[in-house]
Amino acid sequence: MPATKGKRPASEKSKVNTGAARLAKLGLRSDMDLVLHLPLRYEDETKVVPIREADFMAGSAPQVEGIVTSCEIQYRPRRQLVVTVADETSQLVMRFLNFYGSQVKQLAQGVRVRARGEVRHGFFGAEMVHPTYKIVQEGDPLPTALTPVYPSGEGLSQAYLRKAIANAMTRIDWRDTLSPALLSSLQLGSFDAAVKLLHNPPPAVDEHALADRSHPAWTRMKFDELLAQQLSLKRAQAARRARSAAVLPVVGGLSNSFLAALPFTLTAAQQRVLAEIRADLVEPFPMQRLLQGDVGSGKTVVAALAAAQAIDSGYQAALMAPTEILAEQHFRKIAQWMEPLGVRVAWLTGSLKKKEKNEAQALIESGAAQLVIGTHALIQEGVEFARLGLVIVDEQHRFGVGQRLALRNKGASGQSVPHQLMMSATPIPRTLAMTYYADLEVSVIDELPPGRTPIVTRVLDQNRREEVIARIHAAALEGRQVYWVCPLIEESEALQLQTATDTHATLAEALPDLRVGLVHGRMKPVEKQMVMDAFIRGDTHVLVATTVIEVGVDVPNASLMVIEHAERFGLSQLHQLRGRVGRGTAASVCLLLYQSPLGPTAKQRLATMRETTDGFEIARRDLEIRGPGEFLGARQSGEAMLRFADLQTDQWLVDKARNVAQMLLRDDPATVDAHLARWLGGREEFLKV
Question: What reaction is this protein's catalytic activity (predicted)?
Answer without folding.
Answer: ATP + H2O = ADP + phosphate + H(+); Couples ATP hydrolysis with the unwinding of duplex DNA by translocating in the 3'-5' direction
